[in-house]
Amino acid sequence: MSESSLPESEGVQEAEMTFFEHLKELRGRILKALAGVVIGAVVCFLFINPIVEVILLTPAKVSHIKLQNLKPFGQVFLYFQVSLIGGIILSLPNLFYQFWKFISPALRRNERKYIVTIALYSTLSFFMGIVFAYYIMLPMTLSFAGQFGSPTIENQFAIDEYMEIIISVMLAAGVVFELPMVSFFLSKIGILTPAFMRKYRRHAIVVIMLLAAVLTPGTDPVSQLILAVPLFVLYEISIFVSKFSVKKA
Predict the structure, then answer these.
(1) Rounded to whole angstroms, what are the CA distances from 18 to 21, 25, 27, 68, 105?
(2) Can you give the residue range of the structural domain that contains 12?
(3) Is 1 part of any domain?
(4) Mean pLDDT over residues 143-156, rounded?
(5) Mean pLDDT of the 88-110 span
(6) For residues 244 and 14, what is the distance between their CA atoms, to the nearest angstrom?
(7) Is 211 a member of any domain?
(8) What is the rounded CA–CA span in Å between residue 205 and residue 123?
(9) Counting Cβ atoms within 10 Å, is residue 117 exposed (0-12), middle (13-18) or buried (19+)?
(10) What pLDDT sits at residue 46?
(11) Contacts of 27 (CB under 8 A, 6+ apart)
(12) CB neighbours of 217 closer than 8 A, spacing ≥ 6?
């Protein structure tokens, strides 16, 4: 065996894993991901009052929306829910890292060194989606919901339904902002091509409208439209990312 062929054979052996080895690897990655979520949830619970008052309730204050708690232990469960979701968001770098490390056998050896970079970019994309939802989608959505209807009817939101809107819109925006990264990975492994995405652009518009309707709470057309526009922009960006990824490969 020549020295030039040795690294390639080692890469093949490294990539080859049995079914049970994959399960063991998956279990280890899941445990590490859950450990990160637990640590993040504990940290969020320690700062739960600023998170709720300063971050989550500010959109209601800006939109002049009155909130009320209708359940005896509503705020108790709410605080635990916020801590858990905050823990997931806070541990996103670890979650993305564990995910990309699990699928790293599908990548070439020279591509695996970019795992940390890909995890950071995935986290950045998710946070960009959250920021977009918080500063653009939520103010318009809550203003529409709070001001719509007869002036003789006072709009008051139950705190659990309000939090459902806030959290679901931010998480949905974070997920859809991952579209370029998904396009990058699928193009790297040869499943997706820019020609395919351009060919089915019209079909993608229909899917985007349906996806916006599913990801946004209720039947609010304003939030659906606000989410659909950046989704289409992200789709166009994903075509460019796919083209770049295919050329580089």
Answers:
(1) 5, 11, 14, 55, 12
(2) 6-248
(3) no
(4) 70
(5) 79
(6) 28
(7) yes
(8) 26
(9) exposed
(10) 93
(11) none
(12) 164, 165, 168, 169, 223
